[in-house]
Amino acid sequence: xxxxxxxxxxxxxxxxxxxxxxxxxxxxxxxxxxxxxxxxxxxxxxxxxxxxxxxxxxxxxxxxxxxxxxxxxxxxxxxxxxxxxxxxxxxxxxxxxxxxxxxxxxxxxxxxxxxxxxxxxxxxxxxxxxxxxxxxxxxxxxxxxxxxxxxxxxxxxxxxxxxxxxxxxxxxxxxxxxxxxxxxxxxxxxxxxxxxxxxxxxxxxxxxxxxxxxxxxxxxxxxxxxxxxxxxxxxxxxxxxxxxxxxxxxxxxxxxxxxxxxxxxxxxxxxxxxxxxxxxxxxxxxxxxxxxxxxxxxxxxxxxxxxxxxxxxxxxxxxxxxxxxxxxxxxxxxxxxxxxxxxxxxxxxxxxxxxxxxxxxxxxxxxxxxxxxxxxxxxxxxxxxxxxxxxxxxxxxxxxxxxxxxxxxxxxxxxxxxxxxxxxxxxxxxxxxxxxx
Length: 437
Prior knowledge:
This protein is an alpha/beta fold.
């Protein structure tokens, strides 16, 4: 199999992994004349950094051969798919040649498990090491690490990568035992803790050297880690996913948790569902995830024991507001920033702008219009100088009906065979006996 055929197989096999964001990638200066590539600039749009930079990535597997038999994975041991395998040198050559053609600005590398976790992790690290040390590649590198590998190899991967990620896959150990028996939540947490400890250690050393204004070269390490969970492959509810995400954000300071809606794969295992969950469920989980990360919500506020799943018709913030009408309306001229975050339709940026603006004059609707606030959603929940929603007397039911999506309109199918009901049958009998009357 030539390199192009391998690329077709292994690039297609990598499409199921969503945790390839490039946020927080450090800019490396290659203007001195030594080195290839840079995480700055723009190219093919694959992912975005927080500052708006577009990072184009070569997203590929080192191999889709795997000794694990995870039921939800198309590359599992028992799957009948075409197999291929790159050598580390081939991945390095591809990355450099694609960069020089301005196709990419970085590499996202994952792999199936061959021989053992340590053997595979050594190959993955070798790719990054060759790029950094032999070819002085300054572009973005994201490595998918293997939780079953030794802590030393996982720690070494961070020396050459901008971002590391380990997929949790499923939020509960019971589900992993059923669908991915070789994997463990505990081992994944231990690997994440290894990465988190090295990131903290490196940041502390860099801070100390910066304070002392030392000329000693500052150590470099991955800027963060991320993970991915599959939604709809097991019976886990949305509360399970958000609880696991909250645990990872709180204990290991993950940059992102990605939620990937399960999609049926060719020749699926019999233990998997026959159809994928609605994509809107994935969307609602991302919205709830933002409430956890940026808006100060807790998992218990977003989901409840009676309703462990998110409302698919309206966003989680609006759903919380409708369940807690006693907390509204909120006065945008007097309330603290933390309460402004709770107003549906009001984002973090605009909430901070309002706090700065109200120091100079009272906030009016015209000010909110200039800030491009979504007034349709915010007005029932907030008070400003020239607006008080108490006079509208809108109930939670009325508000839900207002913001819920309209019912889908059925299309008439004139080619379908009409269904004969009771009325049609009676009419046919009358017409059949018309001559007797």
